[in-house]
């Protein structure tokens, strides 16, 4: 009896798989609007208990498809539909979202498809930090949308299991936006919460860099408006050109060197 059940089960699997063994041949017969995977594969209920098996099958086929098309320098227009099909069949396939979105966005040149795939991942995997992280990283790298990137990084760091170093992206986004003071405050927080000397050393270096940028920007604005250099850096704070001057943990002090026209640090 057990043998009969196994034979029947294998027959069912073979019958279903026979429709997929040559996945590329489905393009002309089933595909509409130049989409790669047959429409049936985007239905999460079509394959019943075999959803995950088929998701894995399409996953391996997608890697071959990507490699072949990349080598031939051919169009990768079907990537978005491939990974959407995989994640419809297996909504908890994390790599299909993160790796898939990377390919869709970089090689497929389809930012909208990349963004939609990652947002879909956030819905199906609400506790996974990778989805908002990649949204932040791609906004930063590809579109230089630092404000959007900062917001996604803030969401990512609140997710369970998110590495602490991901938080470092947030002050860096403020640096890119020219908001050096806010970034500096974040590095001070990182310094105060550092768990080892190496992390403290890196945070302190960034505090100095961000503070110098903030004060230099304030001096430029002061000279432009007043027509002369400030007496000292504290004048910048009193007149509202600088938001503050940090007390550095190593006892160093900031000063303005008129000859070099630069904010320097001395101990």
Number of domains as seen in the coordinates? 2
Estimate the helix proportion, in percent: 55-70%
Low-confidence parts: 2-36
Strand order of the largest sheet: 1-2
Alpha-carbon distance between the two ends: 85 Å
Derived structural class? mainly alpha
Record field, number of beta strands: 2
Q: Which series of helices and strands comes N to C?
A: HHHHHHHHHHHHEE
Mean pLDDT across every amino acid position: 83
Total helical elements: 12
Beta-strand content bin: under 5%
Radius of gyration: 27 Å
The shape is elongated
Main β-sheet: number of strands, strand sense, barrel status? 2 strands, antiparallel
Folded structure, characterized:
There is one protein chain. The chain has 267 residues and is mainly α. The chain has two domains: 1-126; 178-267, no CATH class. The chain contains twelve helices and two strands. It has helices spanning 2-17, 26-30, 51-71, 79-89, 94-106, 111-124, 130-141, 146-157, 169-176, 180-192, 197-226, 233-238, and strands spanning 253-257, 262-266. The chain has a two-stranded antiparallel ribbon with strand order 1-2. The radius of gyration is 27 Å and the shape is elongated.
List keywords for this structure.
single chain, 267 residues, mainly alpha, 2 strands, elongated
Layout of SSEs?
Blueprint lengths: L1 H16 L8 H5 L20 H21 L7 H11 L4 H13 L4 H14 L5 H12 L4 H12 L11 H8 L3 H13 L4 H30 L6 H6 L14 E5 L4 E5 L1
Antiparallel strand pairs: 1-2
Helix pairs in contact: 3-4, 4-5, 4-6, 5-6, 5-7, 6-7, 7-8, 8-9, 9-10, 10-11
């Amino acid at each position: 009896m057990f043998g009969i059940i196994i034979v029947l089960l294998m027959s069912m699997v073979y019958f279903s798989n026979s429709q997929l063994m040559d996945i590329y041949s489905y393009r002309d017969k089933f595909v509409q609007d130049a989409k790669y995977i047959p429409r049936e594969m985007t239905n999460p209920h079509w394959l019943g208990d075999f959803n995950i098996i088929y998701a894995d099958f399409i996953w391996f086929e997608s890697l071959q498809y990507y490699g072949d098309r990349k080598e031939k320098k051919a169009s990768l227009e079907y990537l978005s539909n491939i990974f959407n099909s995989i994640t419809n069949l297996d909504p908890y396939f994390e790599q299909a979202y993160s790796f898939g979105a990377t390919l869709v966005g970089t090689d497929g040149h389809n930012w909208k498809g990349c963004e939609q795939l990652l947002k879909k991942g956030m819905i199906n995997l609400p506790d996974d930090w990778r989805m908002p992280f990649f949204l932040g990283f791609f906004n930063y790298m590809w579109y230089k949308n630092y404000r959007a990137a900062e917001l996604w990084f803030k969401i990512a760091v609140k997710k369970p299991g998110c590495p602490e170093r991901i938080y470092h992206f947030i002050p860096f986004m403020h640096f890119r936006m020219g908001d050096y003071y806010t970034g500096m405050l974040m590095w001070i927080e990182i310094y105060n919460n550092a768990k080892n000397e190496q992390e403290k050393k890196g945070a302190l270096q960034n505090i100095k860099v961000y503070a110098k940028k903030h004060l230099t920007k304030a001096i430029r604005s002061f000279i432009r408006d007043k027509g002369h250099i400030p007496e000292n850096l504290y004048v910048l704070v009193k007149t509202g050109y600088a938001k503050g001057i940090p007390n550095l943990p190593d006892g160093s002090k900031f000063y303005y060197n008129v000859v070099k026209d630069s904010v320097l640090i001395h101990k």
